[in-house]
Design a protein that fits this description.
The structure is a homodimer. By secondary structure, the first copy, chain A, is an alpha+beta fold. Chain A has a single domain, classed as Orthogonal Bundle (Arc Repressor Mutant, subunit A). Chain A has five helices and three strands. In chain A, α3 crosses α4. The longest helix of chain A has 13 residues. The first copy, chain A, is globular and about 45 Å long. The two termini of chain A are about 25 Å apart. The structure holds a DNA duplex.
Chain lengths: ~100, ~100
DNA sequence: GGTCTATATTGACCACTGTCGATATACTGC
DNA sequence: GCAGTATATCGACAGTGGTCAATATAGACC
């Protein structure tokens, strides 16, 4: 069994995107809110600077976790539509035959 | 909303443990096998050295993803019993009201 | 076009982590 | 106790990634 995974494994990418306190917090907020949140709200609420927030949002975006939609000067972010499904799928492969779904 | 999460957030810890190609592969194998696997099998199958495997197993162990049971010279690892539940719980908090479970 | 705000990008810095060779520790069998 | 195998730990190092100030880009308004 070859265990040396290629770096672009989408599952690893997704997990890496979530494996940061700030980014996980962002995703939690998006989930709890249930609708798009303006990037500027994250800048105000998070204890890190604007460039850092922007960097984090980019990581999440490129991992397919979130999507952004520009509205004038603002960009509203929301969870990607397939995120829940991806989470569920990964869970099934990681938990074996246990009934996760 | 304070977004500066404390480092010991168990969810972040768990995600960090999984967010490595080798470690994710280990967990996938444990899930697919459905029963404990000897550490020595990982050493043989993974394209990294024995100390690295041991280090990875430790990270997974300390994050609560796996449990080891020594049998003589050998240690057999299996997924922690609550892993599936934890995955499911995190999924629920991250996916909002979507029916993940 | 100029000015303003919102957001992304750049470059530097530094802490953290994956990796490995060497070694320590655990266990077995004699 | 010794010799062997299995596994964990140590220490060093290269690479990665989070962070921020400065700056570039995007968009709105006049």
């Amino acid at each position: 069994m070859i265990a040396n995974m290629a770096a672009p494994d989408p599952d690893v990418r997704l997990l890496q995107a979530l494996a940061d306190p700030v980014r996980l917090s962002v995703v939690r907020q998006l989930a709890a809110q249930g609708r798009p949140i303006c990037a500027c709200d994250f800048v105000e609420c998070c204890a890190v600077s604007q460039p850092t927030i922007s960097h984090h949002l980019r990581v999440l975006r490129e991992a397919g976790v979130i999507r952004g939609e520009r509205q004038g000067s603002f960009i509203f972010y929301a969870l990607a539509q397939d995120f829940a499904l991806r989470w569920r799928d990964i869970g099934q492969t990681l938990s074996g035959l246990l009934a996760v779904a």
